[in-house]
Amino acid sequence: MSPRSARLARLSRSVTFSACHRLHSKSLSDEENLQLFGKCNNPNGHGHNYKVIVTVRGEIDPVSGMVMNLTDLKEYMQEAIVEPLDHKNLDKDVPFFSEVVSTTENVAVFIWDSLRKLLPQGILYKVEVHETEQNVVVYKGEETIVK
Predict the structure, then answer these.
(1) Is residue 20 flagged as an active site residue?
(2) Which among 85, 78, 134, 77 is positioned nearest to 106, based on CA atoms?
(3) Which pathway does it operate in (predicted)?
(4) CATH of the domain at 38
């Protein structure tokens, strides 16, 4: 490999936050919500200790040897994830969830959209949200075409 050839790498960093929510869709009746979401539809909500892994992708800079400075990534994650979500009631404290069910899938979308506004364009690769040790959502910014 010549010295001029670029190498791509993926860099990941994790963060945790605690939040509560209630899985409840305004499009469904109370009975339908209970049927669909079960105990997660508890009117008083329930909480999780979420773990989020953010992965960025890019060329390894030949001078710094980095895809991105981890200190910068840490600050972006603090602003996009911890500040708006930690110790919050997602449904009541985060405007995004006033019309969107606060599923882990939608939490991942919220985080993706928030990070994309802060990070250098095109570097965000993946957002992985661990709601529990067993439940994980991976989102890469993909959308479907409305038919």
Answers:
(1) no
(2) 85
(3) Cofactor biosynthesis; tetrahydrobiopterin biosynthesis; tetrahydrobiopterin from 7,8-dihydroneopterin triphosphate: step 1/3
(4) 3.30.479.10
Alpha carbons 7 and 120: distance in angstroms, whole number: 18
46 is in an annotated binding site: yes
Boundaries of domain holding 119: 8-139
Residue pair 130/121 in contact (Cβ under 8 Å)? The answer is no
Could you tell me the end-to-end alpha-carbon distance of the chain, in angstroms, rounded to an integer? 46
Query: What per-residue confidence (pLDDT) applies to 4?
Result: 66
Vertex 101: Cα angle to 100 and 104 (nearest 5): 115
Number of domains the chain contains: 1
- Residue 1 is predicted with a pLDDT of 47
Query: What's the pLDDT at 3?
Result: 58
Element (H, E) at 35: helix 30-37
Residue 131 belongs to a domain: yes
The yes-or-no answer on residue 142 being catalytic is no
Residue of 32, 59, 75, 87 marked active site:
87
pTM over 0.85: yes
Give the pLDDT confidence of 46-89 residue by residue, as tens digits. 999 999 999 999 999 999 999 999 999 999 999 999 999 999 99
Residue 118 contacts residue 81 (beta carbons within 8 Å) = no
Q: Does 17 fall in a domain? A: yes
Question: Is 87 noted as a catalytic residue in this protein?
Answer: yes
